[in-house]
Amino acid sequence: MVTPVRVVIALCLFVPFVAMLWVGSYAKTDPAFIGIPFFYWYQMAWVLISTALTMIAYQLWRRDQRGRSSRKGGVAE
């Protein structure tokens, strides 16, 4: 079943893949950040962003599963 929460979860997990696979958007050296070329710091920033988005997706999934199990009256699978 597709719900708005599950769409948000999918977007949280999908966005980092798109950001990293679209190499043309970050295959450059400028702007540099504290002497680090853009290519490197952009990827490292996405490591942190991906971690945050995955944590958000996980928390939303847990909340969705708890809601589903309470509506069913059973234990979440």
Automatic annotation (TrEMBL):
Stretches that traverse the bilayer: 7-27, 39-61
Name of the protein in question: Membrane protein
Keywords of the record: Membrane, Transmembrane, Transmembrane helix
Keyword Transcription: no
Coiled coil: none
